Amino acid sequence: MTPGLPSVLQVSTADVLGGAERIARHLHESVRARGGESWLAVGRVEGSVPGTLSIPNEPRRSAWTRAWRATADRLEHGGRLGALGARVARGPVAEPARWCATRLGHEDFRFPGTRALLDLPPTPPDVLHLHNLHHLYFDLRELPSLSHRVPTVLTLHDQWIMTGHCAYSLDCERWVDGCGPCPYLTTYPALRRDATRFNWQRKNRLVAASRLHVAVPSEWMRGLVARSQPAAALRALRVMRQGVDLSIFAPGDRVAARAAIGTPSDLEQPVVLLLADALRDHSWKGGAWVRDAIERAATTPAGRRTTFVAVGNPSGLERVVRLPIRFIGVMQDLAAMAASYRAADLFLHPSRADNYPNAIMESLACGTPVAATAVGGVPEQIRAGDDAVGALVPNGDAAQLAAAIERALTLDAAARNRRRAAARADAERRFDARDMVEAYLAWYAELASAAQSTRR
Fold first, then answer.
1. What is the pTM (predicted TM-score) of this model?
2. 215 with 308, same domain?
3. Sign of torsion, CA 209 210 213 217?
4. In CA terms, which of 237, 288, 311, 396 is 20 to 30 Å from 202?
């Protein structure tokens, strides 16, 4: 261990994926950049991040399960009957208890690699830092044991740990005192049957039996945690503001950025950027009202000159998107994503629910104003009335979102440049990832020192 720098094991869904994964990866790489020991244990290895460790869930399943899964693989391509046989072999035959539990609506915690987490690095970590735990890779039943063995930080990127299944409860308050019957059973992570009360009770017992130091990126999330049942059992609850790498997400050559994503090089022709998920009829990512807002904006004089660009996979959207939107595919490369923000005059983030989204910080850091819904922690990122960096609109209000788009498109060049400068300045003040790293490193050192003193 580098003097004054504890060794850390970050645990995340994947090494390369969405906002929560980026935070875990950035903390991991920052410790290593300072000469410290850090490892990133993930359910799925998607890239080649140094220090990444794969959580060995599949190798640790029983010989029975592995044998029947191998049989299912052989049956997979044997026509309709073979495909049916593969499903039976992989499910009720290979893991009958797990298969029955998921059909009863019980959340799936059967991931045996979790037990080996602390043995994955070459030396035991001084601090364990957990991120999203609900992407089918982590056994929550191991949380008490892990947190009693090593100081454990849990960053809540959403509400899942407090609910009977959902990552965001939307307008439902049943998670406060027991869940069930669930009004949003198909909300991610969806359940086959309503066992939300069972799930809620089980998670609350596990959290209460653990020694957790909980971090949240927003005051909004801190308020939710304070209302949750196991709040009194937490060792600590801190707001730890997240940030982005301002050297990657930064203003730059906008003409080159537009060329990179295939949009008009003439900066007088506006570009509006959004994530493709905002167009889907998803639990909390937007949907029909967002498509309605874009359609309204696209029919205005300024809108007819505008190129609307969506980052992400268009699959499944062909039936619902009737707008002239250019899809540019999934972007895991941060520099490419930064170029996308840089090319745009406005970024749309119209979620039905969110915590403290990276995308808003990334866009502002690139000098691109944002129009977003006033949900969750978003008003802590774009403050009401702060027209210099963007606009907040009510959730589900297509008319107001369309009006915000139109206002941005009708600004003259001087006004657009002022907004760009204001957005970047705001990001430099509030969203520098180095501030986030310093805060977490100080906390790691505090926890490691306290644990060391206890062992003496």
1. 0.93
2. no
3. negative
4. 237
